[in-house]
Every structure is written in C-alpha cells, then in structure tokens.
Amino acid sequence: MEDKHMLMIPGPTPVPEKVLLAMAKRPIGHRSGDFSKIIAEINDNLKWLHQTKNEVLTLNVSGTGAMEAGMINFLSPGDRVLVGVNGKFGDRWAQISETFGLDTVRISAEWGQPLDPGEFQTHLESDSKKEIKAVIITHSETSTGVLNDLETINKHVKAHGEALIIVDAVTSLGAYNVPVDEWGLDVVGSGSQKGYMVPPGLGFLSVSDKAWQAYETCKFPRFYMDLGKYKKANLKASTPFTPPVNLMYGLQISLQMMQREGLEGIFSRHQRLTNMTRAAVKALGLQTFAADEVASTAVTAVTSDTVNTEDIRKIMSSKYGITLAGGQDHLKGKIFRIGHLGFVSDRDMLTGIACLEATLSELGHKIPAQAGVKAAAAQLV
After folding, report:
1. What's the 3-state SS for 297-359?
2. Does the model's pTM come out above 0.85?
3. Cys-Cys link to 143, which of 88, 199, 222, 239 (CB 3.0-4.6 A)?
4. What fold is seen in the domain 6-12+263-378?
C-alpha cells in the first residue's frame, strides 16, 4: 500500500502531520517582522527544552555540523581534549578533533559498553597544569544504544575547573532529561531530525557563559560557523544567514506540541517505549546489545544467535513497510536497531513489535504466540 511507510530508526524520525502541514505553507521573507516573531517564539521554546537561560543557537546543519561548530568556536589548534569513544559517533568527534589539529586523547570502551567515568576522573585529576581544555562526550551513543553517564563525567569536569564539557545530545535531547543549567553543561549539540520531530536540516547548540569566555580566545578561523554571529542575531530574533524558512515553520509547531506534552511527559513516554521494546526483544528470544542499566531511550540495538539480522530488516521493510536501522562499521550485519525516538506512541511500538514477531516466525525462529506483544503490553500496566 502506498504512503504507509513507517520509520523505526533513530533518525530521521517520524514527523507529525501538523508539522508537515506547517512546512507546506508558502515561505515568507526571512527578514520580515512576521518571521522575526516566529524566531522569537522558537528561541524561547528551545531554552525551555534545553532547561537553560542561555541562548540556544539554530544552525542550518545536521547534528555533525552542530558538534563541529561546538568544537571550533571554543578551542584552538593544539589544545588537549579528552574524547569518549564507545561507538560510531564518539569516534566521529575524535576524528573531527584530530582533523582540526587538537591534541586528542581518546578514552575508549568496547562498543556496547558505557564509558568509564573513572578514566576521565584519572586524566582530569592528574592534569595539574590544566592543559585539558575540553571533554567531548556522546550522551546517547546511537550506534549501539548505550547511554553514557554524562552526569558523573560532568562532575569530574567541573572539579577540574578549567575544562569545558562539549556534549553530543543529538539523540538524548528531547528523549531524556538533560538539565543544561542544573548540570552546568557548556556546549550541547543536537539535531532537528531526532527528538524534535522535524526533518533533517537544523542543528542546535546551547552555550554557557564559560564557553563564551573561551570563544573570545579561540584561534580557529570560521565564518559561516562563527557562533558569535548567531548569538548576536538571536538576541534580535533574527539569523545571520538565510534560514530554511519552511523547516522553521515545522520547528515552531513541533516545539508547541512538546510544550503541551511537557518535559516529564516526554521523558516518561520515551522511557516507557524503551521498556516495551527491551521486554519484547527478550521475550522473542533475541538479545539486547546494551545492558538495561545503560540503555538509551532513543534506540535499542538487538542481536540474534539464530536469525540473520539483515534478513529481519529486509522482511520488515518489504512486507510490512517498516524501516529498522542496521549496524554500523564492524557491527554491520551483526545487529539491527529499533528507533523509539520522537513522534512515537505506544500504539506504534506495539505495531512494530507485532510485525517483528511475524517476521521472526517467517524466518523459522521458534517463539510462543504473541510473546513479544504480551511482554510489551505488560509495560503499559
């Protein structure tokens, strides 16, 4: 059946009809008074979502662009940085750091395992000369479904006194409680195609006063990615360059929807969806790649000893119109990933699990009838 496709990946995520309809409107002048009012509303609601009093900057980039901007605006060539690497995206931030000539120290863990806060503590406490300028962390590691202990790592950064903490919250912002001001997070990057329920194309950065102080001495050249320009424009409810007007229409509506649900409602819904998914996966005789204690609320990575994960993805797509994510790099063909991020409801999850159960049966995987759906539904009681 046409137009019945269902995304169950960690991004792009499903987009609400209200957002799609808003994006279908004709564009208006991005320097007009009417558009300035939209920007002002968006800026206020982004502060609400980030739980911060500081400006949240909107860039015409993906999450990767936001993270790159978050590095080159507050650091200088040769600065020492600690980068947590336990998946595809931690590795990407280390690659960006190395590309820009930063003295990059990788603190690694096996993919599927969380980063050890104690390793960061050791490096930071031994830095008597205060040479470490930043710690760069992926909060929700999308490639493996692991949620790193950002709060504890950040406490060690704060004890150091000098280092900034730069956070990839691309799949945790809008799915997990990230109280930016309460924790004192300096730079937090995210992207529109995740918890924001908007198509790809917008990146967001919240920036602390401490980070803005570092901006004044940053020596990397930048122009389009110069965050000082974005801050200046933000304060005037404007943008330094031409924004994607129709994406901004959609963002305005999605943030209104998030406000109506409320932060606690958003976080509890994502936790419930996570619990449903993990309970169902285990009931179906599959294995979760990450332990329950460190499970991301955005995506669940799944392995199987008996069924080919790519066969599962193929049938889910061709027969049921549901897209699941595959593994990345050395995990390709070894895991599949179920996204439960953004505009996803209990009904969506039950539907996906029922189709997964039917797919496994077709592949000869022996399971009790309705085992997955029953396990998931039990999480709703």
Report:
1. CCEEEEECCCCCHHHHHHHHHHHHCEEEEECCHHHCCCCEEEECCCCCCHHHHHHHHHHHHHH
2. yes
3. 88
4. Aspartate Aminotransferase, domain 1 (3.90.1150)
